[in-house]
Write a structure and sequence with these properties.
Elements (H helix, E strand, L loop, with lengths): L29 H34 L18 H30 L7 E8 L2 E6 L4 E3 L7 E5 L4 E7 L4 E5 L4 E5 L5 E5 L5 E7 L11 E7 L1 H11 L2
Parallel strand pairs: 1-5, 4-10
Antiparallel strand pairs: 1-2, 2-3, 5-8, 6-7, 6-9, 9-10
Helix pairs in contact: 1-2
The chain binds copper (II) ion.
The site of copper (II) ion (CU) has 7 residues, from loops.
């Protein structure tokens, strides 16, 4: 259980049981919800296939089991059955194609960049920390003991432009179900639209050297009014 911290909620470590264990995935952004529903769909379809296959096996072994005093009754013996062959080839094919199409659309949704993001932040990974540069001037930088905290508004679109100044790092926030490599000399962009207030833990997810483990950060999602006030205080 989370302990009560005065004034704020404790940053999650990203490994709370029941949140990141083998259960339903956490979703703190609109993009994460898209991925989570994809995950849920795969789980449901997978379970349906399991029930069908186990059901058929159970049916076969009980229907044609050897019975006491019943002699040796065999199930119908045949070499080919075209309708059956076609059915068990086509049905899985349709299933796989449908799941592929759904995932393709989900990934396109997650990767989609809004034409006019509300907030833009240049994120730079370096050995061993993170720099958050807000369009307009503010740059946040922390240390291993006081990792930087990115502040973004709830329900609005934040564009992250990600790069690295030295080696490969990776920007990862478990609650956002999102991870992206930070590559030196190359900038990539993605959008986040938070759907939950709170402070979410982030990590470097690419082993990048001796102090890789210290490359943490957090993302604090606040109401848009609070964000505007925070920007007012920090804009320079
Ligand atoms: Cu790193």
């Amino acid at each position: 259980m989370a302990r009560a911290y005065p004034g704020s909620s404790p940053p999650k470590t990203g490994y709370e049981p029941g949140v990141h264990g083998q259960t339903w995935p956490a979703t703190a952004t609109a993009q994460a919800s898209v991925l989570a529903s994809d995950w849920v769909l795969f789980t449901i379809v997978g379970l349906a296939v399991v029930v069908l296959v186990w059901g058929l096996i159970l049916f076969a072994v009980t229907r044609w089991r050897r019975r006491d005093g019943g002699g040796d009754e065999f199930p119908p013996q045949f070499r080919t059955n075209n309708p059956l062959e076609i059915a068990w080839t086509v049905a899985p094919l349709i299933l796989v194609c449908a799941l592929f199409a759904y995932t393709y659309r989900a990934e396109a949704d997650v990767e989609n960049l809004a034409p006019h993001p509300d907030v833009t932040i240049h994120v730079q990974g370096y050995m061993w920390g993170w720099r958050f540069g807000y369009a307009g001037g503010t740059t946040l930088e922390g240390s291993a003991l006081a990792p930087p905290e990115m502040v973004i508004p709830l329900g609005e679109t934040t564009r992250i432009e990600l790069t690295s100044s030295d080696v490969n790092h990776a920007f990862w926030v478990p609650d956002f179900l999102f991870k992206r490599d930070a590559i030196p000399g190359r900038a990539t962009a993605f959008d986040l639209r938070p759907s939950k207030l709170g402070t979410f833990a982030g990590r470097c997810a690419e082993f990048c050297g001796l102090n890789h483990a210290l490359m943490s950060f957090s993302v604090r999602v606040v109401p848009p009014e609070d964000y505007a006030r925070w920007r007012g205080r920090n804009a320079r």
